[in-house]
Amino acid sequence: MINVFHIVSNKAWGGAERYASDLVAHMRHDPNFYVEVVSAKHDNIIEQFQKMDIPVSILPLKGIRDLDSPVRLARMLKKGKNIVHVHTYRDALTAVMARIISDNPNTKVVFTPHRLKRPSFNYVSKKIYRSIDQYVFVSQFAYDYFALHAPRIKKQQSQVIPESVLNTDTSAHAQVPNLRQELAMRDDQALIMFHSRLCRDKGIDVLLKALTLSDSDSYKLVLLGEGQPKAVSRIKSFIIESKLVDNVKLLGFQRNVHDYLKQCDFGVQPSTIAEVQGISNLEYMKHGKPIITTNNGAQPEYVVDRENGLLVKPNNVEQLAEAITLLCNDKELRLKLGARAKLDFDTKLNYDTFYKKITTLYTSLTS
Hints:
single chain, 6-stranded parallel beta sheet, alpha/beta, 14 helices
């Protein structure tokens, strides 16, 4: 049996936490692995894993000045075959130090970067980057960016395993309302959905501005996600000032997001930053929903414009408004794009394929 420890230290639930959550949820039923989460003391993060009956160990996880975390983690790595899978450079530092302290040659460190952050190459970081046993990139775009800025990393240290999404069990969650009924929608109106952090990076401001150029009688938009209080306040003010109150509904963070996605006609994720993958896009594709997203990251690796979704330029309000209007007015096109999106997900991006590649990697590293 291989012991797998996923380290998550972020304060807010995001792409890295979702990646780890899906993986440990699937892996806990695999007899070949024991899985545990190592988290900083953030109650909202810990609670999500505890709901899945995943063991959680709490460490400070404060980075280079934190000597307590590597020592305590090392105690967990003294025996057996161990994989420590980290998702930030700060946690990679902790994992590498813990492996050295544990003096267990059967402990390997895997690093999956989830953000486009140019790696610094001072003396310490060079040592850490070279000590990581395997980099797992969620897209070719992510690998190319990292390789460009970290040429000293050996190619055999890196592998591209496209990310996927797992349809988590929602039976324990509260029943999801019928959104079309709740919003008193007509049959000819499109139900649009955005689910992500409510911040400028994810393009929420661009989306709301685009709606002011669209026919307000043709759609309803549901926003799923949380944001900083100032950002949410700004969003609410814009909705009121732009007279979008009857068209836009904020529902906050929803754990059972898949039950909401199934009800929409299409999704809009107009990220203004380059996405290393774009997990929200994959969730729409999984449920056969077309997606309007930007072309500034890994999205073109799986979204083909006019075939399984629509691609627009980031921060282009007019182009986004045109795409929204097109899908609102053309139900046949929505169904066509959605059917192809589901086919592409099922054949190329399904979770079983992703899981097999990850677990094969774990096994090969510890064999």
